[in-house]
Design brief:
- This is Cell envelope biogenesis protein OmpA.
- InterPro entries: DUF6069.
- It holds the Pfam family DUF6069.
- The chain is mainly α.
- The protein has one domain.
- 72% of the residues lie in helices and 3% in strands.
- A two-stranded antiparallel ribbon has the order 1-2.
- Helix 1 runs antiparallel to helix 2, helix 1 runs antiparallel to helix 5 and helix 3 packs antiparallel against helix 5.
- The longest helix has 28 residues.
- It is elongated, with a radius of gyration of 19 Å.
């Protein structure tokens, strides 16, 4: 009797992608709220167009946009020839585009810089975590 074994490479499961994405999302939400709270405590205004952004709002918005990012990752995983490369290109471009409202906002320069910093913090946590689960 002859037994033949073959090995195949299996793409990471959707569950692992979503799990790691969810963990990164929670970490990014906490991190952006912490950055905003620390900046506010240091005297940086969170006012945009005369209205303050609540510190928990940073966590909420991070969570919403990270969830949209996970949907993008799932789509790329299914349809892109090289999902990891596509994910990195798309998310870096979207991170750069996310600076546009900050630059145009009716806010102090330090507030604008803070908003852009929170985008970078979230991206630095979420992009690599999801990329690791894409082939």
């Amino acid at each position: 009797m002859t037994v033949t074994l073959t090995t195949t490479t299996v793409a990471p499961s959707t569950g692992l992608l979503l799990r790691d994405g969810a963990v990164a999302t929670v970490l990014a939400a906490v991190a952006t709220a912490t950055v905003a709270g620390t900046a506010q405590a240091a005297g940086i205004s969170l006012n945009v167009a005369g209205a303050p952004i609540p510190v928990p709002g940073f966590a909420v918005m991070t969570t919403i946009f990270a969830a949209l990012g996970l949907l993008i990752a799932l789509g790329l995983r299914r349809f892109a020839a090289r999902p990891r490369t596509a994910w990195i290109r798309v998310t870096v471009a979207l991170t750069a585009l996310s600076f546009t409202p900050d630059v145009l906002a009716d806010a102090a320069p330090t507030t604008k810089a803070l908003l852009m910093t929170t985008h970078l913090v979230a991206a630095a946590l979420i992009i690599p975590a999801v990329a690791r689960r894409l082939r």
